Task: structure prediction
Amino acid sequence: MQDHLVRVVAADAMVRAIAAVTTNTVDEARRRQDTYPTATAALGRVMTGAALIANMLKDRQKVTVQVKGDGPLREVTGDADAQGGVRGYVLRPHVHLPSKRGKLDVGGAVGTHGTFSVIKDMGLREPYRGIIELVTGEIGDEFTHYFASSEQQPSAVGLGVLVVPDNSVAAAGGYFVQPLVGAPDWVVAKIEENISHALPVSDMVNMGYSAEDILARILDGLDMQVKERRDILFSCGCSHERAERTLIALGVKELREMIDDGEPIELRCNFCNEAYMFSIDELEELVDKIKEKSGLRQVQ
Result:
């Protein structure tokens, strides 16, 4: 099944909801970063949550979700854009903890002390930043708490990643459901009842549920109407040119030290693990570019 996302309204447009199937996208991130199962589950949940938030943005806008905790993972980041591109990385990919009550212990890997941040790049001079303290370390709980506390919008968020014995991702996905201001109490009660009787989202995806099927289960009895369907895929915007700009930003002094070491420099993207090599001659060219731009290059 192609990874995809669906946005709907329900209950006479008193409820908005988004669901995504992200199995292939998360597995691509897992493959590129060689993550162990617990790290994979945390990474996949953050990436999926970022994809859900990004669908609420306008074209060319982006969101970064960053989880920093005192657990062994230390940091997990997910980036997504409004077109369906998603990427992510985990600072310590080779983390795997013993299962807890039959499930991967993502909360233990993240930790309970730290921050959960949502950074929205909406094309303005400064991005919007919403930061809360971690509550449980469980990624779904943190998203739910973020919407309730930072954006003052109580919501239900479900996220799940199923990792199989060969360490690959068999299923990944998530949903976001938000009753709008003025929604009747019976609508909220119906959503809560449906969620309490629904299977975990990773189980639904593993059984072949589409994103629309997931929302149909969560919004059963509330007259759901589909507003958008969109493909999702792993997408990283890194390039040799961007790596070059990173080196230029270091300045002449640091570049000259690299040149004096006499070894080529490798820069590796945190998100996709792509490596970009720069020879000594290329480093010399970057020094010349900096000098030309600043007017410091001497006339020979």
In short: The mean pLDDT is 93. Residues 211 and 292 are 53 Å apart (CA to CA). The radius of gyration is 22 Å.
